[in-house]
Amino acid sequence: MTHSHRRHPTVYRLAVLAAFAVLVGGCVSESPALSPSIGPVASPEPSPSPSPTPEPTPPRLRSGPDRLALELVTGTFTLPTAVTNAGDGSDRLFVVERGGRIWIVNRDRTVVSIPFLDIASRVVSSGEQGLLGLAFHPQYAETGRFYVAYTRQADGADIVAEYRVSSAVDTADLASERILLAIPDPAANHNGGALAFGPDGYLYIALGDGGGQNDQFGNAQNVNRLLGKLLRIDVDGTPAAGLPYAIPADNPFANGGGAPEIWAIGMRNPWRISFDRAWHDLYIGDVGGGNWEEIDRQPPDAAGGLNYGWPIMEGRHCLAGSCVMEGYVQPIAEYGHDLGCSVIGGYVYRGEAQPELQGVYMFGDWCSGRIFTLDVDGDSIAVRNVLESGLQVSSFGEDEAGEVYVVDYAAGGLYRVVVPG
Predict the structure, then answer these.
(1) Which tens digits make up the pLDDT trace of 84-113?
(2) Domain that holds residue 204
(3) Three-state DSSP class for residue 197
(4) How far apart, in whole angstroms, are the C-alpha atoms of residue 73 and residue 414?
(5) Alpha carbon distance 133, 142 (integer Å)
(6) The domain spanning residue 185 has which CATH number?
(7) N or C, which end of the chain has less CB nearby within 10 Å?
(8) CB-neighbour burial class of residue 166 (10 A; exposed 0-12, middle 13-18, buried 19+)
Protein backbone atom coordinates (compact mmCIF):
# COMPACT_ATOMS: atom_id res chain seq x y z
CA MET A 1 0.00 0.00 0.00
CA THR A 2 2.87 2.32 0.66
CA HIS A 3 6.01 3.39 -1.09
CA SER A 4 9.03 1.18 -0.82
CA HIS A 5 11.27 4.08 0.24
CA ARG A 6 9.15 5.09 3.29
CA ARG A 7 8.56 2.72 6.22
CA HIS A 8 7.13 2.95 9.74
CA PRO A 9 9.79 2.15 12.35
CA THR A 10 8.00 -1.03 13.36
CA VAL A 11 8.87 -2.52 9.98
CA TYR A 12 12.49 -2.63 10.95
CA ARG A 13 11.66 -4.52 14.13
CA LEU A 14 9.52 -7.12 12.39
CA ALA A 15 11.12 -8.85 9.46
CA VAL A 16 7.83 -10.35 8.36
CA LEU A 17 6.54 -6.83 7.68
CA ALA A 18 9.30 -5.83 5.29
CA ALA A 19 7.76 -7.42 2.23
CA PHE A 20 4.52 -5.57 2.87
CA ALA A 21 5.94 -2.13 3.67
CA VAL A 22 4.69 -0.74 0.37
CA LEU A 23 1.13 -1.78 1.14
CA VAL A 24 -0.42 -0.79 2.07
CA GLY A 25 -42.76 19.88 10.74
CA GLY A 26 -46.23 19.78 9.30
CA CYS A 27 -49.07 22.12 10.33
CA VAL A 28 -52.85 21.54 10.80
CA SER A 29 -55.25 23.39 8.47
CA GLU A 30 -58.21 25.06 10.11
CA SER A 31 -61.82 24.14 9.12
CA PRO A 32 -63.29 26.67 6.69
CA ALA A 33 -65.68 29.28 8.16
CA LEU A 34 -69.36 28.59 7.31
CA SER A 35 -71.25 31.24 5.31
CA PRO A 36 -74.96 31.95 6.01
CA SER A 37 -77.22 29.85 3.82
CA ILE A 38 -80.97 29.53 3.19
CA GLY A 39 -80.61 25.84 2.51
CA PRO A 40 -79.26 22.96 4.45
CA VAL A 41 -75.76 23.47 5.74
CA ALA A 42 -73.32 20.82 4.59
CA SER A 43 -70.96 19.34 7.12
CA PRO A 44 -67.50 20.84 6.83
CA GLU A 45 -64.69 18.74 5.45
CA PRO A 46 -62.62 17.21 8.23
CA SER A 47 -59.30 18.89 8.91
CA PRO A 48 -56.33 17.01 7.56
CA SER A 49 -54.32 15.03 10.04
CA PRO A 50 -51.01 16.58 11.06
CA SER A 51 -48.12 15.49 8.87
CA PRO A 52 -45.74 13.13 10.63
CA THR A 53 -42.62 14.79 11.89
CA PRO A 54 -39.83 13.85 9.48
CA GLU A 55 -36.81 12.04 10.77
CA PRO A 56 -33.95 14.49 11.26
CA THR A 57 -31.47 14.36 8.41
CA PRO A 58 -28.04 13.35 9.71
CA PRO A 59 -25.16 15.63 8.78
CA ARG A 60 -23.51 14.65 5.55
CA LEU A 61 -20.07 15.36 6.91
CA ARG A 62 -18.94 17.31 9.92
CA SER A 63 -15.97 17.89 12.18
CA GLY A 64 -15.78 15.69 15.24
CA PRO A 65 -13.99 15.69 18.58
CA ASP A 66 -10.45 17.01 18.77
CA ARG A 67 -9.22 13.66 20.06
CA LEU A 68 -10.15 10.01 19.59
CA ALA A 69 -9.03 6.83 21.32
CA LEU A 70 -8.92 3.10 20.65
CA GLU A 71 -10.49 0.34 22.71
CA LEU A 72 -8.94 -3.12 22.32
CA VAL A 73 -11.41 -5.83 21.32
CA THR A 74 -8.97 -8.69 20.79
CA GLY A 75 -5.37 -9.09 19.73
CA THR A 76 -5.00 -12.50 18.16
CA PHE A 77 -4.59 -12.00 14.40
CA THR A 78 -1.64 -12.40 12.06
CA LEU A 79 -1.08 -9.54 9.58
CA PRO A 80 -4.74 -8.45 9.36
CA THR A 81 -5.71 -6.53 6.23
CA ALA A 82 -9.47 -5.95 6.60
CA VAL A 83 -12.44 -6.15 8.97
CA THR A 84 -16.15 -6.10 8.14
CA ASN A 85 -19.55 -7.52 9.09
CA ALA A 86 -21.97 -9.86 7.31
CA GLY A 87 -25.11 -7.76 7.75
CA ASP A 88 -27.01 -10.88 8.76
CA GLY A 89 -28.13 -9.83 12.23
CA SER A 90 -25.51 -11.95 13.98
CA ASP A 91 -23.38 -8.96 15.08
CA ARG A 92 -20.25 -10.89 14.14
CA LEU A 93 -17.09 -9.29 12.81
CA PHE A 94 -14.91 -10.95 10.16
CA VAL A 95 -11.18 -10.25 10.22
CA VAL A 96 -9.14 -10.92 7.07
CA GLU A 97 -5.52 -12.04 7.33
CA ARG A 98 -3.11 -11.38 4.51
CA GLY A 99 -1.92 -14.98 4.44
CA GLY A 100 -5.33 -16.25 3.30
CA ARG A 101 -7.52 -16.77 6.35
CA ILE A 102 -10.70 -15.10 7.63
CA TRP A 103 -11.64 -15.30 11.31
CA ILE A 104 -14.98 -14.69 13.05
CA VAL A 105 -15.26 -12.49 16.13
CA ASN A 106 -18.53 -13.35 17.87
CA ARG A 107 -21.07 -11.01 19.43
CA ASP A 108 -19.35 -11.50 22.79
CA ARG A 109 -16.06 -10.65 21.05
CA THR A 110 -14.57 -14.11 21.41
CA VAL A 111 -12.81 -15.53 18.34
CA VAL A 112 -14.07 -18.75 16.76
CA SER A 113 -11.35 -21.37 17.03
CA ILE A 114 -11.34 -22.39 13.37
CA PRO A 115 -11.16 -19.99 10.41
CA PHE A 116 -14.32 -19.08 8.53
CA LEU A 117 -12.29 -19.38 5.32
CA ASP A 118 -8.81 -20.74 4.75
CA ILE A 119 -7.43 -20.33 1.23
CA ALA A 120 -3.81 -19.93 2.23
CA SER A 121 -2.77 -22.53 -0.34
CA ARG A 122 -4.31 -20.41 -3.13
CA VAL A 123 -2.83 -17.06 -2.08
CA VAL A 124 0.59 -15.54 -2.72
CA SER A 125 1.64 -12.86 -0.26
CA SER A 126 4.87 -11.36 -1.57
CA GLY A 127 5.27 -7.58 -1.80
CA GLU A 128 1.79 -6.17 -1.26
CA GLN A 129 0.01 -9.32 -2.35
CA GLY A 130 -2.26 -11.51 -0.25
CA LEU A 131 -5.89 -11.87 0.76
CA LEU A 132 -6.87 -8.21 0.56
CA GLY A 133 -10.65 -7.74 0.47
CA LEU A 134 -13.96 -9.16 1.68
CA ALA A 135 -17.59 -8.16 1.06
CA PHE A 136 -20.79 -9.99 1.96
CA HIS A 137 -23.78 -10.09 -0.36
CA PRO A 138 -26.45 -7.59 0.78
CA GLN A 139 -28.78 -10.55 1.34
CA TYR A 140 -26.13 -12.81 2.83
CA ALA A 141 -28.56 -14.21 5.41
CA GLU A 142 -30.60 -15.67 2.51
CA THR A 143 -27.96 -16.30 -0.17
CA GLY A 144 -24.95 -17.32 1.90
CA ARG A 145 -22.72 -15.67 -0.72
CA PHE A 146 -19.65 -13.55 -0.07
CA TYR A 147 -16.76 -12.23 -2.16
CA VAL A 148 -13.02 -12.04 -1.66
CA ALA A 149 -10.12 -10.37 -3.45
CA TYR A 150 -6.72 -12.05 -3.41
CA THR A 151 -3.56 -12.52 -5.45
CA ARG A 152 -3.26 -16.01 -6.87
CA GLN A 153 -0.43 -18.29 -5.88
CA ALA A 154 0.08 -19.71 -9.35
CA ASP A 155 0.64 -16.49 -11.29
CA GLY A 156 0.12 -13.43 -9.08
CA ALA A 157 -3.11 -12.51 -10.86
CA ASP A 158 -5.65 -10.33 -9.05
CA ILE A 159 -8.63 -12.57 -8.29
CA VAL A 160 -12.19 -11.70 -7.30
CA ALA A 161 -14.06 -14.84 -6.29
CA GLU A 162 -17.44 -15.79 -4.90
CA TYR A 163 -17.81 -18.28 -2.07
CA ARG A 164 -20.77 -19.67 -0.16
CA VAL A 165 -21.17 -20.47 3.50
CA SER A 166 -21.35 -24.15 4.35
CA SER A 167 -24.12 -25.84 6.33
CA ALA A 168 -22.15 -24.85 9.41
CA VAL A 169 -22.72 -21.10 9.76
CA ASP A 170 -19.20 -20.42 10.97
CA THR A 171 -17.34 -21.97 8.03
CA ALA A 172 -17.33 -21.41 4.29
CA ASP A 173 -17.54 -24.09 1.62
CA LEU A 174 -14.09 -24.20 0.02
CA ALA A 175 -15.41 -26.14 -2.95
CA SER A 176 -17.92 -23.38 -3.77
CA GLU A 177 -15.31 -20.98 -5.20
CA ARG A 178 -16.45 -19.30 -8.39
CA ILE A 179 -13.87 -16.98 -9.93
CA LEU A 180 -15.44 -13.83 -11.33
CA LEU A 181 -12.31 -11.95 -12.36
CA ALA A 182 -8.72 -13.04 -12.93
CA ILE A 183 -6.65 -10.00 -13.93
CA PRO A 184 -2.99 -10.41 -14.85
CA ASP A 185 -0.85 -8.08 -12.76
CA PRO A 186 2.68 -7.14 -13.84
CA ALA A 187 4.09 -6.41 -10.36
CA ALA A 188 3.66 -7.36 -6.73
CA ASN A 189 2.55 -3.91 -5.54
CA HIS A 190 -0.45 -1.62 -6.08
CA ASN A 191 -3.00 -4.41 -6.03
CA GLY A 192 -5.85 -2.47 -4.40
CA GLY A 193 -8.29 -5.19 -3.46
CA ALA A 194 -11.06 -3.33 -1.66
CA LEU A 195 -14.58 -4.70 -2.21
CA ALA A 196 -17.91 -3.10 -1.25
CA PHE A 197 -21.54 -3.44 -2.24
CA GLY A 198 -23.14 -0.11 -3.08
CA PRO A 199 -26.65 1.03 -2.20
CA ASP A 200 -27.52 0.10 -5.80
CA GLY A 201 -26.78 -3.55 -5.00
CA TYR A 202 -23.75 -3.73 -7.32
CA LEU A 203 -20.32 -4.95 -6.31
CA TYR A 204 -17.58 -2.28 -6.47
CA ILE A 205 -13.99 -3.45 -6.88
CA ALA A 206 -10.98 -1.14 -6.38
CA LEU A 207 -7.83 -2.06 -8.30
CA GLY A 208 -4.37 -0.52 -8.25
CA ASP A 209 -2.43 0.49 -11.34
CA GLY A 210 -0.32 -2.67 -11.51
CA GLY A 211 2.70 -1.41 -9.62
CA GLY A 212 6.09 0.00 -10.39
CA GLN A 213 6.57 3.76 -10.36
CA ASN A 214 4.28 6.48 -11.77
CA ASP A 215 2.05 3.99 -13.57
CA GLN A 216 4.94 2.71 -15.65
CA PHE A 217 2.69 0.09 -17.25
CA GLY A 218 0.22 2.70 -18.52
CA ASN A 219 -2.90 1.22 -16.95
CA ALA A 220 -4.69 3.93 -14.97
CA GLN A 221 -5.79 6.05 -17.97
CA ASN A 222 -6.29 3.15 -20.39
CA VAL A 223 -10.03 2.39 -20.55
CA ASN A 224 -9.41 -0.99 -22.12
CA ARG A 225 -7.56 -2.25 -19.04
CA LEU A 226 -9.01 -2.97 -15.61
CA LEU A 227 -6.01 -2.02 -13.48
CA GLY A 228 -6.00 1.45 -11.92
CA LYS A 229 -9.80 1.53 -11.92
CA LEU A 230 -12.93 1.26 -9.86
CA LEU A 231 -15.04 -1.57 -11.29
CA ARG A 232 -18.78 -2.14 -10.88
CA ILE A 233 -20.46 -5.44 -11.65
CA ASP A 234 -23.84 -7.08 -11.07
CA VAL A 235 -23.49 -10.44 -9.35
CA ASP A 236 -27.26 -11.11 -9.36
CA GLY A 237 -28.28 -10.34 -12.95
CA THR A 238 -28.21 -12.61 -15.97
CA PRO A 239 -24.54 -12.93 -16.90
CA ALA A 240 -23.36 -11.07 -19.98
CA ALA A 241 -22.06 -13.12 -22.89
CA GLY A 242 -18.78 -14.76 -21.94
CA LEU A 243 -18.82 -13.37 -18.39
CA PRO A 244 -19.83 -14.86 -15.03
CA TYR A 245 -21.62 -11.64 -14.02
CA ALA A 246 -23.88 -8.97 -15.52
CA ILE A 247 -22.84 -5.47 -16.54
CA PRO A 248 -24.93 -2.60 -15.10
CA ALA A 249 -26.60 -0.80 -18.00
CA ASP A 250 -25.33 2.62 -16.84
CA ASN A 251 -21.68 1.65 -16.62
CA PRO A 252 -19.86 4.15 -18.88
CA PHE A 253 -18.56 1.52 -21.30
CA ALA A 254 -21.46 -0.93 -21.07
CA ASN A 255 -22.09 -0.49 -24.80
CA GLY A 256 -18.50 -0.26 -25.95
CA GLY A 257 -15.56 2.12 -26.02
CA GLY A 258 -13.79 0.49 -23.10
CA ALA A 259 -13.94 -2.39 -20.65
CA PRO A 260 -17.59 -2.73 -19.61
CA GLU A 261 -16.77 -3.38 -15.95
CA ILE A 262 -15.19 0.06 -15.47
CA TRP A 263 -16.99 2.63 -13.31
CA ALA A 264 -14.17 5.17 -12.70
CA ILE A 265 -10.57 5.55 -13.86
CA GLY A 266 -7.30 7.23 -12.88
CA MET A 267 -6.41 5.49 -9.62
CA ARG A 268 -3.01 4.61 -8.22
CA ASN A 269 -3.68 2.20 -5.35
CA PRO A 270 -7.13 2.67 -3.81
CA TRP A 271 -6.70 1.12 -0.39
CA ARG A 272 -10.15 0.87 1.14
CA ILE A 273 -13.45 2.21 -0.12
CA SER A 274 -16.70 2.68 1.78
CA PHE A 275 -20.27 3.86 1.29
CA ASP A 276 -21.83 6.28 3.74
CA ARG A 277 -24.91 4.50 5.12
CA ALA A 278 -26.94 7.73 5.38
CA TRP A 279 -25.98 9.77 2.29
CA HIS A 280 -24.66 6.92 0.09
CA ASP A 281 -21.54 8.85 -0.86
CA LEU A 282 -18.62 6.67 -1.90
CA TYR A 283 -15.32 7.44 -0.14
CA ILE A 284 -11.99 6.31 -1.56
CA GLY A 285 -8.57 6.42 0.05
CA ASP A 286 -6.07 6.46 -2.82
CA VAL A 287 -2.44 5.95 -1.85
CA GLY A 288 -0.13 8.61 -3.30
CA GLY A 289 3.29 8.47 -4.88
CA GLY A 290 6.09 10.68 -3.61
CA ASN A 291 4.22 13.55 -1.96
CA TRP A 292 0.45 13.48 -1.49
CA GLU A 293 -2.19 11.16 -0.04
CA GLU A 294 -5.83 11.72 -0.99
CA ILE A 295 -9.45 11.10 0.01
CA ASP A 296 -11.93 11.11 -2.88
CA ARG A 297 -15.70 11.31 -2.59
CA GLN A 298 -18.22 10.33 -5.25
CA PRO A 299 -21.83 11.51 -4.69
CA PRO A 300 -24.57 8.94 -5.21
CA ASP A 301 -25.93 10.82 -8.25
CA ALA A 302 -22.56 10.95 -10.01
CA ALA A 303 -22.42 9.39 -13.43
CA GLY A 304 -19.90 6.70 -14.19
CA GLY A 305 -16.68 7.50 -16.00
CA LEU A 306 -15.17 9.96 -13.53
CA ASN A 307 -11.41 10.35 -13.84
CA TYR A 308 -9.45 10.76 -10.60
CA GLY A 309 -6.33 11.89 -12.43
CA TRP A 310 -3.51 9.44 -11.78
CA PRO A 311 -0.79 9.57 -13.08
CA ILE A 312 -1.31 13.14 -14.33
CA MET A 313 -2.43 14.27 -10.89
CA GLU A 314 -1.31 13.32 -7.40
CA GLY A 315 -3.83 14.75 -4.96
CA ARG A 316 -4.56 18.29 -6.18
CA HIS A 317 -1.14 18.63 -7.78
CA CYS A 318 0.36 17.93 -11.17
CA LEU A 319 2.69 14.98 -10.87
CA ALA A 320 5.17 16.35 -13.39
CA GLY A 321 5.06 19.95 -12.15
CA SER A 322 2.61 21.31 -14.71
CA CYS A 323 -0.44 19.83 -16.41
CA VAL A 324 -3.95 20.58 -17.60
CA MET A 325 -6.18 19.85 -14.59
CA GLU A 326 -9.49 20.21 -16.39
CA GLY A 327 -11.46 16.98 -16.55
CA TYR A 328 -9.97 15.39 -13.45
CA VAL A 329 -11.87 14.97 -10.19
CA GLN A 330 -9.92 16.53 -7.34
CA PRO A 331 -9.95 14.96 -3.88
CA ILE A 332 -12.03 16.45 -1.09
CA ALA A 333 -8.97 16.23 1.17
CA GLU A 334 -5.26 15.55 0.96
CA TYR A 335 -2.22 15.51 3.22
CA GLY A 336 1.50 15.58 2.63
CA HIS A 337 4.20 13.19 3.69
CA ASP A 338 4.96 15.19 6.81
CA LEU A 339 1.92 13.40 8.29
CA GLY A 340 2.42 9.95 6.79
CA CYS A 341 3.06 8.18 3.52
CA SER A 342 0.19 5.78 2.77
CA VAL A 343 -3.46 6.62 3.35
CA ILE A 344 -5.85 4.03 4.76
CA GLY A 345 -9.41 4.88 3.71
CA GLY A 346 -12.06 4.75 6.41
CA TYR A 347 -15.74 5.27 7.21
CA VAL A 348 -18.29 7.94 8.04
CA TYR A 349 -19.62 7.11 11.51
CA ARG A 350 -23.35 6.29 11.49
CA GLY A 351 -23.68 4.41 14.78
CA GLU A 352 -25.85 5.48 17.72
CA ALA A 353 -23.59 4.68 20.66
CA GLN A 354 -21.38 7.75 20.14
CA PRO A 355 -23.46 10.72 18.92
CA GLU A 356 -20.39 12.97 19.03
CA LEU A 357 -19.09 11.05 16.03
CA GLN A 358 -22.22 11.25 13.88
CA GLY A 359 -21.18 12.34 10.37
CA VAL A 360 -17.44 12.15 11.09
CA TYR A 361 -15.22 10.48 8.48
CA MET A 362 -12.35 8.60 10.13
CA PHE A 363 -9.29 7.32 8.28
CA GLY A 364 -5.59 6.79 8.91
CA ASP A 365 -2.05 6.30 7.68
CA TRP A 366 -0.06 3.08 7.43
CA CYS A 367 3.37 4.61 7.97
CA SER A 368 2.77 7.08 10.79
CA GLY A 369 -0.04 5.26 12.59
CA ARG A 370 -1.96 8.50 12.78
CA ILE A 371 -5.75 8.47 12.77
CA PHE A 372 -7.41 11.43 11.08
CA THR A 373 -10.82 13.00 10.70
CA LEU A 374 -11.94 15.74 8.33
CA ASP A 375 -12.22 19.28 9.69
CA VAL A 376 -15.28 20.67 7.91
CA ASP A 377 -15.93 24.42 7.69
CA GLY A 378 -18.59 25.07 5.07
CA ASP A 379 -17.09 24.03 1.75
CA SER A 380 -13.60 23.91 3.21
CA ILE A 381 -12.34 20.48 4.27
CA ALA A 382 -8.97 19.86 5.90
CA VAL A 383 -7.28 16.87 7.51
CA ARG A 384 -7.24 16.80 11.31
CA ASN A 385 -4.86 14.57 13.26
CA VAL A 386 -6.86 13.18 16.21
CA LEU A 387 -4.74 10.27 17.44
CA GLU A 388 -1.13 9.12 17.42
CA SER A 389 -2.06 5.47 17.67
CA GLY A 390 1.38 3.87 17.61
CA LEU A 391 -0.14 1.13 15.45
CA GLN A 392 0.51 0.01 11.91
CA VAL A 393 -3.02 0.79 10.75
CA SER A 394 -3.95 -1.41 7.82
CA SER A 395 -7.72 -1.08 7.58
CA PHE A 396 -10.94 0.28 9.05
CA GLY A 397 -14.30 -1.48 9.19
CA GLU A 398 -17.85 -1.27 10.54
CA ASP A 399 -20.02 -3.56 12.60
CA GLU A 400 -23.75 -3.90 11.97
CA ALA A 401 -24.54 -1.10 14.43
CA GLY A 402 -22.24 1.33 12.62
CA GLU A 403 -19.39 1.33 15.13
CA VAL A 404 -16.00 1.76 13.49
CA TYR A 405 -13.00 -0.51 14.02
CA VAL A 406 -9.29 -0.52 13.20
CA VAL A 407 -6.89 -3.41 12.68
CA ASP A 408 -3.18 -3.24 13.50
CA TYR A 409 -1.09 -5.07 10.93
CA ALA A 410 2.02 -5.29 13.11
CA ALA A 411 0.67 -6.66 16.37
CA GLY A 412 -2.62 -8.16 15.14
CA GLY A 413 -4.99 -6.17 17.32
CA LEU A 414 -8.61 -5.31 16.59
CA TYR A 415 -9.74 -2.01 18.12
CA ARG A 416 -12.95 0.02 18.31
CA VAL A 417 -12.66 3.77 17.71
CA VAL A 418 -14.10 5.65 20.69
CA VAL A 419 -14.44 9.16 22.07
CA PRO A 420 -12.17 9.49 25.09
CA GLY A 421 -13.99 9.48 28.43
Answers:
(1) 999 999 999 999 999 999 999 999 999 999
(2) 9-20+59-418
(3) strand
(4) 6
(5) 22
(6) 2.120.10.30
(7) C
(8) middle
